[in-house]
């Protein structure tokens, strides 16, 4: 975001845990954690002249770990600041807007569009040799229609292969099959691509193995990559320039490959992002964090798997619709591509027809409150001279969870009042006949009333 804004505006700054540049700029890009820290430390002079706070990827309110930070900020920001929230995956956006409007005492406008600027085609890829490297079937077309016949055909093909070769399922998912896929994508003019993997180790290992046998850059591109890479690392010491990760990435990038995840040095992540934007990196292996807040679309997105580790005792689970939509949405470059391509590596663990349909074209998961009290929050809210909207009592009653419960209570009250009116009508008119439907209707209404 910092580099995007630097191209358009002169006075731009950035504040993160790693970098602080021009903190007093007219436009400052920062993480939500940094903004919360400013609010906690009561550095209000930094916010006095702020007109707008823009939250990109606002569905992060739903994040189990970080969502509480977003709620705290929305509650505690000074009332003169107006908010803009951007997201492609908040199905209950009117409910979220209602909460923000109540907390901020401001009118909140919701602007919706269900049309993608660049339609997506979703493909199941099952090539397992150089002879059938083009083996694929479209399962969701550019109109968003699920093609059940093609989906079942791929499952049938995979089942037949599994029966013929018992060890096939163990061999199917490996670097060799990525080579077949990348060869196909290159021939079909579908590069650059992002390959999403759900482990940092998987990203690094696959990139290392594939880059030994494939090379996607021309002599001119190699020269430009080398020149840019050397220019960037010249800022660090000679000793650091010889770090194993830097040596490895120099080799990757020269061939048009790169890796992007939180375990990569910040400098290398920056280099990779710029090279990818310039389309000098053709194949990027990334974890799902790349889909959050990094504005770098590709022509094609590849899912190495549709399963990820859930972080609890249940082990692996299929992607949620909102997760799939976020990652698939990186396919298609505005102004360059007429359609974006989403490839799914077909293994023997494809979800059922219904699960697959819900994942690819279903509704995103509703945003719910992740608010929770922590010791740190309590200590910060109780210390110093807080404004009214920073008092712990206000934060407790203004969070999204309280709003949802209050709204539910209000809706229940309305239902009770409606039923009471209907029941009173029966009492006033009296029930004319025990055999007719009057008594049955009265009984059913009484049941509803008692349930509520």
Give an overview in words:
It contains 18 helices and 14 strands. The protein has a 7-stranded mixed sheet with strand order 7-6-14-11-8-10-9, with helices on both faces. It has a 3-stranded mixed sheet with strand order 2-1-3. The protein has a two-stranded parallel sheet with strand order 4-5. It has 3 domains: 1-114, P-loop containing nucleotide triphosphate hydrolases (Rossmann fold, 3-Layer(aba) Sandwich), CATH 3.40.50; 126-361, P-loop containing nucleotide triphosphate hydrolases (Rossmann fold, 3-Layer(aba) Sandwich), CATH 3.40.50.300; 402-451, no CATH class. Helix 2 (32-40) crosses helix 3, helix 7 (175-187) crosses helix 8 and helix 17 (400-429) packs antiparallel against helix 18 (437-451). With 452 residues, it is of the alpha/beta class. Strand 4 (52-55), helix 3 and strand 5 form a beta-alpha-beta unit.
